[in-house]
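My current task is to audit a protein record that another person submitted. Alongside the sequence sits a line of tokens, each denoting a local backbone shape. Where you disagree with what is written, explain briefly why. This is what I was given:
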Amino acid sequence: MEGLHLPVMAVAFSRYDVIVAGLGAMGSATAAQLAFRGKKVLGLDRWVPGHRHGSSHGDSRIIREMYFEHPMYVPLLGRAYDLWLELGKRVDAKLLHIHGGLMIGREDGMLVKGTLRSAREHRLAYEVLSPGEVKRKYPAFDLEQDLVAVFDPRAGWLDPERCNAAHLKLAAQKGADLRFEEPVISWTADDSGVSVATSHATYVADHLVLCAGARTRELVPDLELDLEVERQSVFWMEPRDTDQYAPETFPIWAYEYKPGHICYGFPNLPRGVKASIMHSGEIVEDPDSVNRRVSDDEADTLKRAIAPVLPELSRARVQERDVCLFTNTPDHDFVIDFHPHYRRVLISSACSGHGFKFASVIGEIQADLVVDGRSRFDLTPFSITRSAMR
């Protein structure tokens, strides 16, 4: 990634202001935001940057403004867009790609109704398109006649590896000490600070931010958090007419192919046309031993799901396949909250598979919480003590 090379570490300190455990999407953004504020930051990760063992790889992540899940996310997204653009300018790299998006389903379905609810509540510009209108605008799509599409003009995608690298680069430039291949083993906290033991050493700091993703439960065993780690399979396909799938003529999309079940995809990027079924995977007990072999049956299930909207793509050859991990809460909302027993420990964002687009603003929120003890946003829905987490 030209222009985004990372220094290994900055100057080590005897005591840090903040230790960030996990340097994926949320951790890298948090480390950068804390470093921008002049804090002495230690970032720790068990892997090297760009690894494939977590939730931040795979060349693309959707960003969309009309959030069907709940309108409460829309203000967060507004700030996230601004911060992604700012991050790209800081590192002179294009991280955010806006070409629009289609939210497809039946008019009375969860996806269409939720998208329109967010659009109308926040007075966002949108279009509702018939199958014929979609076909004229985007020829690769051929929707069945009982479907509609809501067009989100601000939707697009982010490059996750470049986004994380940008945050890490800026954090290091501002003095953060970033240490990779150094997993956190345990931690303790009291009124005076925190102590973090890794495979290499023990470090002390005023605060700890846990951004461990699929490994969150093992780092807070005393809480017995109701989190599930889900194996998510992803595919890149090679259609015959790649021009129809170019970003200028093919938007990101999501399709509710049966009630409450969604598949989604991207335009043609260097690895192909990426698509997947959301929350289609098995729950795994050990994220380090997840099955990373993706079967032909999984590919066939995806192809059947997309056939009513992208029939030609459903017949395309699968040229790559991969696995990433979702860490799900019961209600699929995030966790951004201090440990109920240790106010110097912040537990970060089990994102349930839809969090990457928010990483820029979550990093800012978490830096605000650590430095100022508060955020401009209402974080009540992300409380660790909410009923859905008990």
Q: What stands out?
A: The chain is about 25% helix and 30% strand.
